[in-house]
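Teaching assistant's notes for section 4

Start the section by putting this record on the projector. Ask students to predict, before seeing the second block, whether D-beta-hydroxybutyrate dehydrogenase will look compact or extended. Collect guesses on the board.
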Amino acid sequence: MSRRVIVTGGASGIGARIAERFAELGDKVAICDANPDAVAAFAKSHPTISAEIANVAQADAMDVFLSAIEEEWGGVDVVFANAGTGGPAARIEDISPDDWRDCLAVNLDGAFLTCRWAARVMRAQGSGLIVLTSSTSGQWGHPHRSPYATAKWGILGLMKTLAMELGPAGVRVNAICPGAVEGERMERMLANQSRASGRDPDTIRAAYAEGTSLRTWVTADDIADAGIWLASPGASKVTGQALTIDGHTETNSA
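Reveal the predicted structure now:
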């Protein structure tokens, strides 16, 4: 039976791969993203997936996007609250209040707005799965990335609480905590972190891999695999869990 799947931040990176993989399984998929160019490119290459422009940090924009989905589909089975931003890379004394708030707004407020809607819809239908994207930075902390780490820790608190609130209604809530994921976003982050720390980007890149037991980065497909498993019957009793996909971080030496 075809599932109804929503992915926020779905026009590129992890979100795009999650959307693609569920669509390949025959599921009905809708994504939103704040980047108009990315949405246009995604829509052109994925004609069977609904793609809309919406900034997850803006309540009005999310209301429009999610209300349209609810009206068309009548409900939803799987929601990935995936949208996020890396935020500034700097020592905390060099981070402006506006940059701090912007990072938390996209990562944490965006998750709240998405989950707020999903909770209402799923509670009413008595079933559903919410998956939030956190990070190993939300488990270890991350020097020069305090707004990002703070938001990702907050996402785990939100996930744990919603699992408790929604479990009696038959709704599961989990989080995926990716490590260093190959792709354009991490390349931008490496450049920002290099400027903040004065270290060479290649040195930082190597440190991420060396800080894991498997000595590796992970891919968007690795994260999508975890999402597909969480949505499968094999994970029907899994809720309130932070599933870390990172090659096992031994130390956050990056």
